[in-house]
Amino acid sequence: MDAVTDRHAVTLLSDPAVPGSPEGQWWPPQILLPAWLEAHAAEFDLVHLHFGIESYSPDDLAETVAALRRTRRPLIYTVHDLENPQLESQDAHRASLAVLTAAADQLITLTECADAEVRRVYGRSTTVVPHPTLLGAEDPPIGTPHATTRVGVHLRDLRPNIDGVGTVATLVRAIADLRAEGARVEAVVRVNERVRDAEAAASIDRLAAEADGVTLERGDRLDDDELASWLADLDACLLPYRHGTQSGWAELCFDLAVPVIGTRVGHIAAQHPEDFHAFAVGDPNSLARAITDATAPAWSTSGSQRRAEEVARRRRERSAERDRIRAAHLEIYRRALQTTDAA
Q: Exposed, middle or buried, 22 (CB in 10 Å: 0-12/13-18/19+)?
């Protein structure tokens, strides 16, 4: 929220802690509980919801909306996930979206095409505000030079929207084909030590072990700085999504001047279309072409002077953009408050 909130004009309250919970423990957002909203209504002017709705049923969220109406507090909802990456079946998620999109005083989306989908499916228009920069470091990493073109894919914990096996199988074939043509290219596949699908992880292990030019990494979840450094060491980043809407990884890659290769799911390609190169899972030819196109610009080369210059240029542009994003959110908050006051 810091990235979208002007701290000179908006006070952002901390997430309520669950009594007795250990420090750092994630819990479903307490501010969506009607009892919390009614007990603390004097402490806030509005609620801006981004994530966490999968923790509650559509009926629960309807009660949240009713509590906000009783306390005359507006709801702003940023529609990040028209499909929830944490879920396989989307039925309950779509029902929750119907509740929230109908009730929100103001809706936000990140791209024009996401706005069009919200209007088509849920009958509400949104304010389109792009995703802000995710790069907080004053001296962002530019990667280290290496002798080969390096393509990386991070499968994280193999959550439901990640097609780990299909993506790695396609990548193995594409790398083999490019190397057979004489390209100096390699791939790195990273998977968290703890995964949700052990069978898929075992299949990925076998695929990587049998492939020339493909390295498998297993390790703990990377923190923000470690992830930025890992991405910066790539010449292109492969996104392994089978469904989804938008991607924070695409934003971080853009900040770091790392081209993105991905499937055409959701509206990820619209976030930074000039840096997005499409492929289809199961089609190694399309992935080989995407790798070649993505790594053609000189600035894509990790550790190069051109990469450093491009990161610095984007950092300047994104800093100015962040100011515009904060101003847009402040205007949305004011509209919501004026509408509630007039009701």
A: exposed
55: DSSP letter: G
CA distances from 312 to 151, 161, 305 (A): 22, 33, 11
**Strands 214-219 and 185-192: what pairing?**
parallel
Mean pLDDT of 260-283: 97
Return the half-sphere exposure (C-beta side, CA atoms, 13 A cut-off) of residue 129: 26
Confirm whether pTM is higher than 0.85.
Answer: yes
Please tell me whether residue 144 adopts helix, strand or coil conformation: coil
Q: Compute how many other C-beta atoms are within 10 angstroms of the C-beta atom of residue 75.
A: 20
Neighbours of 330 (CB within 10 A): 16
Of the candidates 170, 195, 157, 182, which has an alpha carbon nearest to the alpha carbon of residue 261? 170
Give per-residue pLDDT as tens, 106-150.
999 999 999 999 999 999 999 999 999 999 767 899 999 999 999
State the DSSP H helix or E strand holding residue 327, giving kind and residue range, or none if neither. helix 305-342
**Contacts with 324 (C-beta within 8 Å, 6 or more apart), sequence order:** none
Nearest 5 degrees, angle CA 67-CA 71-CA 75? 70
- DSSP H helices, 127-237, are 164-180, 198-209, 224-232
d(CA 118, CA 114): 6
Percent of the chain whose pLDDT exceeds 70: 97
CA dist 189 and 205 (Å) reads: 10
Cβ atoms 18, 30 nearer than 8 A: yes
Quote the CA–CA distance of 291 and 312 in Å, as a whole number.
24
Burial 111-138 (b: 16+ CB within 10 A, else e): beebbebbeeebebebbebbbbbbbeee
3-state secondary structure of 131: coil
DSSP 274: G
